[in-house]
Specification:
The protein has about 210 residues and is α+β, with helices and mostly antiparallel strands. It has helices spanning about 5-10, 20-25, 40-50, 70-80, 85-90, 115-130, 145-150, 175-185, 190-195; strands spanning about 60-70, 95-100, 135-140, 155-165, 195-200, 200-205. It contains nine helices and six strands, in the order αααβααβαβαβααββ. Strand 5 (about 195-200) and strand 6 form a beta hairpin. The longest helix is centred in the middle third of the chain and has 18 residues, at about 115-130. The radius of gyration is 18 Å and the shape is globular. The structure holds flavin mononucleotide.
């Protein structure tokens, strides 16, 4: 089945529900890309959204390394990607690596919620990108040791995801049947009954 970029976006958008911000249903992780450039202004906005996430003790443990296509950080992030991810992510004009400081800055004590907080900030980033008409794709599939070495990330920072950021493009341009099929399949989620409990294992019935 050959779908256009707009048709894919409609297919990937979850059904709306009154009172739920539409962007939650509209964000999805594309693999196809358009050649449209990402502006510095747009990039600033996605990080502005990320920095207003909540965090344990307001530590804001997240740090983001951002690479623009062709610069040395972009090249290093592209290089550390697992091959299966690089096949499509190498087209991204922006590659970001999120990391989290695992020590509280005031006391040096362990911050066990650092990665949790980075996840929240990363979510804000992806939602703001969607709001701006862009798409993001987070990836855990990369060589973590190589990332530390190549990007000089200190030990006390935990590694989060690599985030590809771009404007979604035509799925056919992916040029690989498996990727095109993934790109043109509707998203699924567990029902609330399976994830919200009133007691352990007992659905809250919402
Ligand atoms: C922590 C994390 C790691 C992920 N790693 C990868 C990855 O290595 N490769 C990939 O293709 N997608 C990866 N994804 C994307 C997920 O597969 C995707 O978010 C999930 O299937 C739900 O789809 P959606 O984001 O379009 O709603 C990752 C997402 C997250 C949050």
């Amino acid at each position: 089945m050959s779908l256009t970029a707009n048709e894919v976006h409609a297919l990937k958008t979850a059904p709306p529900l009154e009172g739920v911000l539409p962007i939650f249903h509209q964000r999805w992780s594309a693999r196809s890309f358009s050649k449209r450039d990402v502006s510095a202004e747009a990039l600033r906005k996605v990080f502005e959204a990320a920095r207003w996430a909540a965090s344990s003790s307001n530590e804001q443990p997240w740090r983001f390394l951002v690479g623009w296509r062709g610069d040395s950080t972009w090249l290093k992030i592209n290089e550390i990607l697992a091959g299966t991810n690089r096949t499509w992510a190498h087209r991204a004009p922006v590659l970001i690596l999120g990391v989290a400081h695992t020590r509280f800055s005031k006391t040096g004590a362990e911050n066990r919620y650092a990665l949790f907080d980075l996840g929240a900030a990363s979510s804000y980033l992806t939602l703001e990108a969607a709001e701006l008409g862009m798409t993001t794709h987070q990836m855990a599939g990369y060589d973590r040791e190589a990332a530390r070495n190549a990007l000089g990330i200190p030990e006390e920072y935990s590694l989060g995801t690599v985030i590809a950021l771009w404007y979604q493009g035509e799925p056919a341009a992916l040029g690989n049947a498996t990727l095109i099929e993934r790109e043109t399949t509707a998203r699924t989620r567990k029902p609330l009954d399976e994830i919200v409990f009133s007691e352990w294992g007992v659905t809250a019935g919402l």
